[in-house]
Amino acid sequence: MTSSEKKRIKRRWGAPWTLAELKQLGKVPDSVLARRTGRTIKEVVAMREHRRVRLPTPPRRWTACEIKMLGHFNDRELTRRLRRSKWDVVKQRRSLHIPAFLPWQGRPWTRAEEKLLGTVPDKELVSRFKRSYEAIAAYRQKLKIPPCRPQAWRAEEDALLGTRPDEEVARLIGRTKIAVRARRCDLGILNRGGQVHQRWTPEQDKLLGTRPDQYIAQRLGRSLNSVELHRTRLAIPAWRPR
Description:
This protein is mainly alpha-helical. It has 5 domains: 3-50, no CATH class; 58-103; 105-150; 152-197; 200-242. The protein has 16 helices and no strands. It has helices spanning 3-8, 19-23, 30-37, 41-50, 64-69, 75-82, 86-95, 111-116, 122-129, 133-142, 155-160, 166-173, 177-187, 202-207, 213-220, 224-233. Helix 3 (30-37) crosses helix 4 (41-50), helix 12 crosses helix 13 and helix 15 (213-220) packs across helix 16 (224-233). The protein is elongated and about 100 Å long. The two termini are 63 Å apart. The model has no long low-confidence stretch (mean pLDDT 82).
């Protein structure tokens, strides 16, 4: 820039910004924009930061400190902290086989729940813990607890089914109420109220999870609790509208 051109540029310190000047923020260096508009560099930097406009940074090598941050923060957060593009952060993290940071939003496990792991089949703990089957199995494996292998039903145990309430039978034979009820329903044995429980057919099993449990219960002539219990035993996820 010649001396004559410098004289033609008027100082506009503190003057209102025009739309044309705002469009140049971040597209040219701050010093160049300050010289073009007759403003100070501090004034240009303040306006650019106020409008949250970032300057494009040239490619640079990753430092050891930056690499240590990968996987410990969200990729978007690292993009802001390191002043790198999101694709640059994702590409570097994947090249080092570092899993993405996902904040845990689950419910903490209690000591009472941990004591039951491995003593009862995971499918029976779904309704009791109000957790998914996958979450229960994964946490049990994390604690290195072997799965519970249900014992085969003996003839004397089957003989007690239906003779007294399920809770009492479960207490006598050392099984859960859910296991006793499921076994009784599978054998088609009457309960204390005299109600007959029909066995589930393969065709009925295929309907589970395809529609809401209430709709399936009305279609099959079963109770909603019976449909939910049988779907949980088969580890079939509940129906969700798309």
